[in-house]
Amino acid sequence: MNDARPGTTVPDHRGRTGLHLTGLDLDRNPRVVVEDVELLAAGWHVLRASTFRYRSDDGAWSTQTRETYDRGNGATILLYDPARRTVLLTRQFRYPVYVNDHPDGMLIETAAGLLDDDDPVTAIRREAEEETGVHVDEVEHVFDVYMSPGSVTERLHFFAAAYDGSARHGDRGGLAEEDEEIEILEYDIDDALSMIRDGSIQDAKTIMLLQWAVLDGPFARR
Length: 222
Known about the structure:
Elements: E1 32-42, E2 46-55, E3 61-70, E4 74-81, E5 86-93, H1 95-98, E6 106-109, E7 111-114, H2 120-132, E8 140-146, E9 155-162, E10 172-173, E11 182-188, H3 189-197, H4 204-215
Parallel strand pairs: 4-9
Antiparallel strand pairs: 1-2, 2-3, 4-5, 4-7, 5-6, 5-11, 8-9, 10-11
Helix pairs in contact: 3-4
């Protein structure tokens, strides 16, 4: 079914081949044997249907099929000013949340982006500067999280870094060539936490980093 489909033995529009082979060589879990991978779509990201045999606790084998959406891995960062007790967030239009009951699709988030071909630290320094205009040298790795493990393969690398709010300029970020219109927002940490409670902040990665900041991070009570 994958024969000559773009992204398999012939390049797709991004020049990729072999997208139907991902997972066939997995052997880390003896209870899982991947038997077939069907490439369903190869737009900007990749949708696959993988069929595998799974051995349950009682030893019986079953055949299952799962769809996975591969958009690559990403990174996100909480920028904070410890002296002023503020955090720097962004707001931009997100169509997927707009179509799923968000009032206007304008989501408040920590700066984030895909790794592309970079390592996580290089990628998050790039994204922080592109989205907020803040250049960061020293970043703290917080944790890595699979954000939607039921269907999305993405692993997100979480970081934090201090910034000097008194020297910051501008309230817009993003790359015009990528159709990004990003508003830069600065909040007191307590106000940001209140926005989680009242539903103004609904983005998972942002909530996780804000809560980390007061539990174990720069605003934790020592």
